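Hi R.,

Quick one: here's the RNA polymerase sigma factor sequence you asked about.
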Amino acid sequence: MTPDEQSLLAAWRAGDVQAGQALFRRHYGGLSRFFRSKAGDAAHELTQATFLACVEGRAAIRATSSFRAYLYGVARNILYDHYRGKSRTRELLEFGEVSCEDLSPGLAGVHAREQELELLLRAMRRIPVNAQILLELYYWERMTAREIGEVLGVPEGTVRTRIRDAKQHVEAQIARLARSPELAESTVMGFDTWAERLRQLVARD
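And here's the predicted structure, written out as tokens:
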């Protein structure tokens, strides 16, 4: 956290409502994007639920911890609860195996004109939910491996390994879904660029 954000967090934990609102304004766009890519039209509701959960649990946030990591850790649990609530077999959901496309087919309102963007969007939604979250935190929210480790509750080295594995998952889906080898190659070779473009697309739509 920046010194400014540390001050806001300390003030909020001490009861300053405006400081809490300032923190939420800083992270609203990213949090909305987090849910938009995985839960579509339910994004606004889930974003509000996450902020409410943070308000109710703010005493548990250590002053020295990353507020952003805490926030996305809560968001991940809210997303899991959302999917469990929609599933008839909620106790059997394994987020390391099931994908967003399995749980919520299609992504209403997000449309990509470029073939690479459309392909990457489809591929991202077909990898396990946990892998999609990992890549979005890394490429979209620009979190460090250490921060992501806080979100997931795993060591930094484990995060780096999982990022590599998740990217391989995406590349495999790209190869399977692409209409041509050339399209697959251009998407994979320009992965960082297309990931950033997709971030902007999901935030805008």
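The mean pLDDT is 85.

Cheers,
M.
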